[in-house]
Write a structure and sequence with these properties.
alpha+beta; 6-stranded antiparallel beta sheet; 21 helices
């Protein structure tokens, strides 16, 4: 892994379909990094249906039938299964005494490296042994022995590497080789192996050390028109698309913004003027109120900025990994544990991060790491946080429950179970009726001639526009705007933020209205 955070390329190899030998690997960097038992095409192909005699011929035919059977859902007989056991259980050491696990098993993935025509010019990722292989198969039609040249430049990484940033690079290299083959016969000409090998060697070295690659191919002996062809490739970080941020989301800092001011390459956009660092003015105002407690609507109100503008700023911070989004923490919230929590039991880094975050940089010392991690397994049966604390007899002075829940949500260990209110009847408690959403006013009401009465109605309308008065009338009947959200698509957090009331007050209003059921999802 290089300093820029890009995964290291372990192996680069060129695969081709030879008209007589079938899939082969003529060039690999480093040499002998690909485990390939080259056989004639007639021996390795199972498409012609020939039965080969001898132990090696039978094993080869059955091996290919196994590969085809796994794709089409067919089963092998017990006799055939016995004959392919030695193909699955390969020895750990090869003939030269090297560890065979460090090599790429080409035979197990050649159907993906040299695929069917439907997979040509598509980005393919395959796992084999300890490696993850990315490739972009190409087919060039022309004056060839089989009227087509099939090749694939493959990049191998560690099995657990995040290779999303290499997708454009693999595709660009494949398209570049296609253009060089069409214009200069780089791959079909035996003289092209030397510049091609040199390009692959420098490709591995430059991308692993600098994250970019620039070279001029010497093709004077291959194609005069492409005597000096320049190749430029650069790696760029891969960022996921920002999530849809809602008014009830709570942004949580996951970087030190003070340190980010001094290291412009780490995070958000900055402009340098002399020795001063000037940030975007909107980000300055928004970051000031990101305290891991305020939700989006609250930040918009505190900064006196439109909520849509605050959402754009938070999307910018989320895109570059500066913040994470969680729900509004309340002791009435319900959570359930996810299977990702199993990572805590075998990942020492996650254990230290959790202990440091929940106990305040590990200074509390009142709770052991083993006990803290084990608490994730006790979040079950969809109990509220308050019920969970009482059931486990937790001492809130020993650790921060809010930070514990936030850490679980951010890393996917816990999932919030939202409460969706659904209106079952339209009649209010006590026999009251819900006001109509729209309609023509009565003639008697619309023809008011008393000026004082009109002024009084105007003042009443102004008071009703406030969020607190708009949610419920003095008789406890919910306003139409709230009733429209009781359709099972809006949860309590969302409704409470819109009407600017806490969840407990909203719940009491719904209970007073009556006819409301609750769905937890």
């Amino acid at each position: 892994m290089i300093d820029s955070g890009f995964p290291e390329i372990k192996v680069v190899f060129l695969a081709q379909f030879h008209p007589d030998l079938g899939p082969i690997v003529p060039i690999s960097v480093p040499d002998d990094a690909v485990d390939l038992e080259q056989k004639t095409y007639s021996e390795t192909s199972s498409m012609n249906g020939d039965d080969h005699q001898g132990d090696s011929g039978e094993a080869t035919t059955v091996g290919h039938n196994l590969a085809l059977g796994s794709l089409h859902g067919s089963r092998l007989t017990s006799n055939e299964q016995d004959r392919v056991v030695h193909l699955i259980k390969r020895p750990n050491q090869n003939k030269n005494g090297n560890n065979a696990d460090d090599k790429i098993d080409f035979n197990s993935m050649q159907t993906l490296v040299i695929p069917k025509i439907t997979l040509f010019e598509r980005l393919i990722t395959a796992h084999t042994g300890k490696h993850k292989v990315m490739c972009y198969p190409i087919a060039v039609e022309g004056n060839y022995q089989r009227n087509v040249l099939i090749f694939n430049m493959c990049f191998a990484f560690d099995i657990d590497a995040d290779t999303k940033c290499y997708g454009p690079v693999v595709k660009r290299v494949g398209c570049l080789l296609k253009e060089l083959e069409i214009g200069g016969k780089l791959l079909s000409n035996p003289a092209g192996q030397r510049p091609l090998r040199r390009m692959m060697q420098q490709l591995v070295t430059k991308l692993n050390t600098h994250g970019e690659y620039q070279i001029e191919l010497d093709m004077r002996g291959i194609s005069p028109s492409l005597a000096a062809t320049g190749v430029s490739i650069k790696l760029f970080p891969h960022y996921e698309s920002p999530v849809d941020i809602k008014a009830y989301h709570v942004p949580v800092r996951i970087i030190d913004f003070g340190l980010a001011r001094l290291k412009s390459a780490q995070t958000v956009y900055q402009t340098h003027v002399g020795d001063d660092i000037i940030w975007d003015l909107l980000l300055e105002r928004v970051i000031r109120y990101i305290d891991n407690v305020n939700h989006v609507a609250s930040i918009a109100r505190l900064t006196q900025v439109r909520e849509e503008t605050v959402v754009l700023a938070l999307k910018h911070l989320d895109y570059y990994g500066c913040i994470s989004l969680v729900d509004i923490f309340q002791f009435s919230n319900v959570y359930e544990v996810q299977h990702q929590a199993m990572r805590m039991f075998d990942n020492a880094w996650l254990q230290r991060e959790c202990y440091s975050y929940v106990t305040g940089n590990g200074e509390a010392g009142d709770i052991s790491m083993y006990e803290l991690i084990g608490l994730f397994a006790t979040v079950r049966d969809r109990r509220s946080v308050a019920e969970w604390i009482i059931e486990n007899r937790l001492n809130l002075k020993r650790f921060d429950v809010r930070r514990f829940v936030m850490f679980g949500v951010m890393y996917g260990f816990l999932r919030r179970v939202y409460c969706y209110p659904i209106l079952r009847t339209v009649s209010a408690a006590g026999g009251g009726e819900v006001p109509a959403e729209s309609g023509e006013p009565d003639n008697d009401q619309s023809s008011t001639t008393d000026g004082k009465s009109a002024d009084k109605d105007s003042e009443t309308d102004d008071k009703a526009k406030s969020p607190a008065n708009e949610a419920a009338s003095p008789e406890g009947v919910l306003e139409p705007r709230v009733l429209q959200m009781l359709d099972g698509t809006h949860h309590l957090d969302e409704i409470s933020v819109i009407i600017d009331k806490d969840t407990l007050a909203l719940y009491e209003m719904l209970e007073a209205h009556g006819g409301v059921e609750y769905l937890y999802l």
